[in-house]
Amino acid sequence: MAVIYDLLVQGVQMFLVLALAPLLTGFVRVIKARLLRRRGPPLLQPYYDLARLLGKEVVLAENASWLFRVSPYMIFAATWVAAALVPTFATGLIFSWSADLIAIIALLASARFFLALVGLDIGTSFGGIGSSREVTFASLAEPAMIMIIFTLALIAGSTQLSTIAHIMSMPELGLRVSLGLALVALILVAIAENSRIPVDNPATHLELTMVHEAMVLEYSGRHLALIEFASMLKLLLYVSLIACIFAPWGMANPGAASLAFLGGLVLYPLKLAVGGALLGLFETSIAKMRVFRVPELLGAALMLGLLGTLFLFVSGSF
Amino acid sequence: MNVEFHAGFFVFALLALAAASVPLARTPRGPVIIYGAAAAIAAIAALSGAIAAARGIPLQVRLPLGLPGIGVRLQLDALSSIFALIVNLAAALASLYAVGYGRHEHEQGRVLPFYCLFLLGMNLVLVADDAFTFLIAWEFMSLSSWALVLVHHKSEVNRNAGFLYLTMAAIGTLALLFVFGMLAGGAGGYAFDAIRAQELNGFAAGVTLLLALVGTGSKAGLVPLHAWLPPAHSAAPSHVSALMSGVMTKVAVYGFIRIVFDLLGAPDWWWGTLVLVLGGITAVLGVLYALMQHDLKRLLAYHTVENIGIIFIGLGLALAFKYHGMTGAAALAATAAIFHVFNHCIFKSLLFFGAGAVQTATGTRDMDHLGGLIHRMPGTSFLFLVGCVAISALPPLNGFVSEWLTFQVILLSPELPDWGLKFSIPAVGALLALSAALAAACFVKAFGVTFLGRARTPEAAAAGEVDRYSLAAMGVLAALCLLAGIFPGVVIDILAPTVTSIVGGRMPVQTEIAWLTIVPIAESRSSYNGLILFLFIAFAAYVAVYVIHRLASDAVRRGPAWDCGFPDPRPQTQYSASSFAQPIRRVYGTLVFRAREIVDMPRPGDLRAARFSVRLRDLIWDWFYAPVVVGVTTAADLLNPLQFQTIRRYLALVFTALVTVLTVVALWQ
Predict the structure, then answer these.
(1) Number of Cβ pairs closer than 8 Å across A and B?
(2) Chain B residues touching A156 at Cβ < 8 A
(3) pTM metric for this prediction
(4) Residue B301 scores a pLDDT above 60
(5) Residue of B441, B433, B407 whose CA lies nearest to A143
(6) What is the model's pLDDT at position B6?
């Protein structure tokens, strides 16, 4: 019985992230539009876009290979699984022990690997520019993320997200320098990973500094829908991750009463809303960076993460 | 079956095969017979390695050959048997691959005999139980592989590669000669049992460690002793490249483990830090070098340097934990290192086989002359892709598991009381993470430029799929990548006796944990389950495919590429190997390679073509090798007049030398 209950919670989590991801993206767009004093698209526009794309036929470039057709599903599946493993409204999900935080980040790296490959598949210069920049940024963002994980894991004594969330919610932990460094670094990495301003602009097309859009330029129809969906899931994943680590309140523990789950389910969208609003505010208040300034930003994130880890190696009380 | 028979069987089978291959190399069916037989012998050897590993009782033989009083001692203990299993597994598959690939070789007589001897040399290193046999086998391995590097000796590049390799191999063996001299001590006990019984003082042990690092590190490709490796590994035929890069470097790692963990006794406090830091630097420099290459095989060979770095990081951590008596953590570190030995052996062989297939199909291995091969070589490209994903440490394949284990060890290390380690381990952790991310970039480049996009030359456009034997060998390796990735607990348990033999402890039994999860220390701390993750991804992908094809559109139309409205049909407009790496070169290369981009743009009205060139400098070559080369050349020039003297002067020279030596000896006492 307990197993079925756990599976149910895991299933709810899987479909909850799927249902909320476009909403979060739509919400960020609305916030940005309002801050610019535009009316902006409706809140549910991303759902309409996805539905429209799914219904359209796919136009494949003449020399597209099988990898080009398979990759959207791989990218979507890997991102979805990663998002489903980050605790949102409840911790200790039934499959959470199958992948710790390092594995979740590596799953996202798998998705990125295929995305960068398909950028090269058609053999256009735009695809190449996107891929080569994506892997360059990732070569700094991923180590920065690993360093952040080290910082968290050294404090919590675990790389399991559920345990980290549990330790982080304990009041005796107090304020720590290393956690502050990790938070700043994590926000920088999250912005870069999700192709947000100032690293990349999710709203442009045909801009010489674009990265993500350049890789997916040749996609259309359901393939494009899957890739767009995957990037929405990734945004949700990072906001959930920050919420789970730095605002771990109100998440139901395994074996808690149903009321706790309901509370978690109410609180989680609120956390997403706060995260989305802050992201919108940040994006409107900053200008896009030149491409070769981005490595400096990510290098800063890497150094902050490394500093946090180093502090903890020196003394566990930092 | 008795042990002498076993040892004798392999030695004489491979020797006989080498002898038989000399006449057979001239016949059209010869290579197939030889490679088939080599595959069978290596498979039997792998099997006997597996049986020995499973039985867990060390075997020892003493053959009445070699030096008087010592003889040739051979053994097969836990450490040797696991390496014998890994090495012969890869050797068997390389031979299977060569059944198909080898027939494209024009110089069969230069390949076949040395190939058999090379296999024999590597196996003898693993089973040697005294210093004399070890060194002979080591030289045997070096020289036979040197001969294989020089198969295509007409090319200037290959001759230089062979010369550099021979020089470095000689330096390495010289260092090992001193290692065993130090280990044997004054009494001169050259059998490994006698060496183990001997106790070296701290200083002598430290010197021995440094010499062992030079001796085995130069064969494995540890920075700064790696310079010979990429040219030599890429010069040989591809199945030999796979053996050199995937397997011989592992024999060198075996040599390091045997000497440092087994023969040298208890480690000193600074050993772990040194090995760890060298490993970290090797990992990052190796992958950065690899990213700058446009020759597919050279890229793979440089990437071997990176993986050796990762293995040495694990070994360094194991040494540090062993010194501080933290056996559990040392076992975890050693498991991570040997797991990576296995993984690298598997996927690097797979990738070299793929590179060989590309070379067979197109006649080139320059990525800038390839492209679009995924259409022409679907099997090879799929298997190569599996290798790329595995080597980039992406779940759910095997490369991720060993990297994940290494990260778990790093997270255990704040408990170490040593301040040097407290500062170096986080830095090495960052280097390891950096090298993992750069490896993914490197293999996006390798696969993307070679197999994806449009064909850059007519040869690439006309390529065809390779033979079944090659595909079968690659298929087995790709399957192993997946199996080791989703059942890592089985591999960890197989490695347990070896780990116990080198650090005195083992990881908890993994195969009894529910769902085949791996739990290095405690479940609350960390766990990973490749199987569940694999099924989870498969399930998610299936749901996506099912829902979309059922409920949404499944119509497809082919059209020209869009490319923002301005597609250019010329394949030159694609990203090439060097343009793909340009952002990375700008971020890291200015520091590491002193990369300079020179743009020669003619003035308006000038009809010259604009030129763009990149200049990279290998700082390690400049700082480490070039002074040695200059020094040796200068000394040779200074001494050159001594070659052209009259007999009287020679006699006077001999007399003066003798008097000087005698004076020195007299004053010394």
Answers:
(1) 286
(2) none
(3) 0.94
(4) yes
(5) B433
(6) 64
